[in-house]
Structure prediction request, 91 residues.
Amino acid sequence: MSELDGYRNDIDAIDQELTTLFEKRLETVLKVGEYKKRHDLPILDSSREKAVIEKNIDRLKNKAYQEEVSEFYKALMAITRGTQQKLMDEE
Prediction:
């Protein structure tokens, strides 16, 4: 196995973990969406999203990745808002 293949295998293993965690996150997001739907709350809570991004930037060991982590969470939350929107649109 080449060095590159080794790195790709590492990425595959990480992706497997990410997929498992993402699925778990989506299941929890739907619970949040059901709560918001029952209580007539908006999907977007920009102050919460900002806090999530800041909290995860603070968790970084390598602060050079701040921009990437910020973009990652912005994209992740945009996807999950869409998941909640589908739930809200159901009658």
User: Anything to note?
Assistant: The chain is about 80% helix and 0% strand.
